[in-house]
Amino acid sequence: MSVLRFLFLLLVGIITLSAPAQAASPQENFQDFLNQWRKKQSITSVVVTIEDLHTKKITTYASGLTRHGAKPVTAQTLYGVGSITKTFVAAALLQLQEEGKIKLDDPIGSYFPEYPRWHAITIRQLLNMTSGIANTNFSKERDDYETTVLSSKKIIEEIYKQPDLFPPGTKWLYSNTNYFLLGWLIEKVSGASLNELFTKRFFQPLHLTHTFYSDSFYSKNVIDQMAHAYAGKQDITAFNASHYGPTGSMLMNSQDLLTWAQALLTPGIILSKKSLQEMETTIAVPPTPPKPEGCRYGLGIYSLQLSGMPSKKPIWYYAGVIRGYTSCFIFIPSQQRLIVAQVANWPGEHFEVLFPNQPLMKRLLK
Q1: Whether CATH 3.40.50.20 fits 26-364
Q2: Residues in contact with 198: Cβ distance below 8 Å, sequence separation at least 6, in sequence order
Q3: Which residues neighbour 310 within 8 Å (Cβ) at sequence distance 6 or greater?
Q4: In terms of pTM, does the model score above 0.85?
Q5: How many whole angstroms separate alpha carbon 300 and alpha carbon 127?
Q6: Is the bond into 290 cis (omega within 30 degrees of 0)?
């Protein structure tokens, strides 16, 4: 081998060895972050789906298994969405108003004469959490030991025995009882069950084929599609949906939740421009940690002005929680970006894990 050829090969080797390794892509970086975040939080599984509404590009990240040692979760895996169910209730009532069947400022006394103390409370005050009615107690003990189907009427009657917390319209307080009343009101006005109404108005038109609502128990076929949630070693996936009903019993996968959030917040698909403006008319939420400071509540939806964002437009979101699951959607109008995140199982039931002010969502909002 000539000296020149040797020097040439040596130089090539040096350049090759000294060349920097190819940098990880943003997608790979986020997947690594998600894997580490899930393990740190002791979460069984997590799915994140992001859509750029300009380009229609959808990206999904997933980490964890459907069961211990079973198949990985995907964008098709079902999760409990908790109080995101309330967005369907609010949308149904706004549609009924568009059709002239109700007015949101109607008092509920004509619908519920059996609760005379509440006769002056309006539908709007139930929707925006200013009714003053006490909250329903979603206790761990009730989930563990109550195996009978609970009707909305029975749950409401329990709350009616308690004193109201303030005169309607004077303060804000989150109360699931409001939405038990609203779900029942929808059934009275429409003559259909909530499942029938949701299916006809939302599930079928939007092709939400992986979205389910129940006010009793889910079938084995549905449960088999779910990410499994645990309390310690106890599998709590097959929860009693009648405990939550219109306040939070719905199941969805991330793709359907993405479709729903986009349709809900785009005028002319689910709601008219006027109705959407009503939904997005918000009132201040008093400081209630761990809710993000400065958040506001409309008709079944939250808004939040993020610090450090160049736009003055708020984000719109809902983080829904049910025992064993939490799901969240966030719409960022200034970026035309939609984010969905869903998790199963978390220690201590720290339900704020997907709030916009927590590490995972803060990373996604960058």
Answers
A1: no
A2: 88, 92, 213
A3: 334
A4: yes
A5: 6
A6: yes
Note the maximum CA span of the chain.
103
Quote the pLDDT of residue 242. Answer: 85
Do residues 172 and 291 lie in contact, with contact meaning Cβ atoms separated by under 8 Å?
no
Give CA–CA dist 191/162, Å, rounded. 29
CA distance 217 to 303: 32
Number of neighbours of residue 26 by Cβ within 10 angstroms: 9
Which residue would you say has higher pLDDT here, 290 or 116? 116
Residue 11 structure tokens: 């130089």
Per-residue tokens: 268: 């002319």
- Show the tokens assigned to 181: 């009343």
**Lowest mean pLDDT: which of 157-166, 205-214, 305-314?**
305-314
Q: What are 151-171's pLDDT values in tens digits? A: 889 889 999 999 999 999 999
Q: Is the pLDDT of residue 192 over 60?
A: yes
The helix/strand/coil state of 356 is coil
Task: Map residue 319 onto helix, strand or coil.
Answer: strand
Relative to beta strand 234-235, strand 325-332 is unpaired
- Tokens representing residue 112 in the block: 């519920």
Copy the structure tokens of residue 324. Answer: 């064993």
> Taking a C-beta distance cutoff of 8 angstroms, is the pair 34, 46 a contact?
yes
CB 290 within 8 A of CB 352: yes
Q: Tell me the two tokens of residue 152.
A: 């909305």
- Closest among 324, 311, 320, 298 to 365, alpha carbons compared: 311
Residue 236 three-state SS: coil
Q: How far is CA 222 from CA 156, 280, 336, in A?
A: 28, 33, 33
The pLDDT of residue 20: 45
Report pLDDT digits (tens) over 2-13: 433 433 333 333
Give the tens place of pLDDT for each residue, 314-339. Answer: 999 999 998 889 999 999 999 999 99
Fill in the amino acid letter for 174: Y
Grouping H, G, I as helix, E, B as strand and the rest as coil, residue 306 is coil
Phi, psi of 96 (to 5 degrees): -60, -35
Residues in the chain: 366
DSSP E strands, the chain? 45-52, 57-64, 79-80, 211-212, 230-231, 234-235, 251-252, 283-284, 296-297, 302-304, 315-322, 325-332, 337-344
